[in-house]
């Protein structure tokens, strides 16, 4: 609903008029009417050039809080009981995650003599991204490898500059965020690689080789398993 008002005096500013209701306006161009828009459920007053927008406070109590909470805590639209998700959509990604961790665990036995490990927490998060939502931007292969390599390198660099501690963690994480945003390669699991390197003394001897191992190398195996999971989800439905 649009209501017309006309200025009568200043609104805490010599150039911002106070609005008072009126049913008509002078026809001269010197006193052009200001248009106000009343929007239900919102409150406040804003000024844009020669136009004011007024939002009423009616209905802005519990209704607004409830709608804000629903936007913040939105339940999933899909689940096992819906027509969009079948049992095979749940089983194959879960089986893929099991196979991935089993393979990485077997590789751990190969490299254990060198004090290395493939089974790291970030690769568990990569499994969740790759197997549950393979079409998401974070699951695209380019994003996975560029973010994994770049963020791991920032962890090595931060430790070399600041030494172990909170400053290195904060600087490495901030640099990783900036890197992913600037390159358009957002991949959330990669953000944990710098923290893992700074706090994990067993990786320090890798130096900048940490940019490739175990994160990027581990993702090669995970991406191969993801292709198998995608094939099974597409061709073996039940």
UniProtKB/TrEMBL annotation:
Domain HPP transmembrane region: from-to ranges: 84-230
Q: Which residues cross the membrane?
A: 114-132, 144-163, 170-188, 208-232
- Report the domain of life of the source organism: Eukaryota
The terms under GO molecular function for this entry are: nitrate transmembrane transporter activity
UniProt keyword annotation of tRNA-binding present: no
Q: Name one GO biological process term.
A: nitrate transmembrane transport
Q: Is Transmembrane a UniProt keyword of this protein? A: yes
The record's keywords, sorted A to Z, are: Membrane, Transmembrane, Transmembrane helix
Q: What is this protein called?
A: (wild Malaysian banana) hypothetical protein
| Source organism (scientific name) | Musa acuminata subsp. malaccensis (Wild banana)
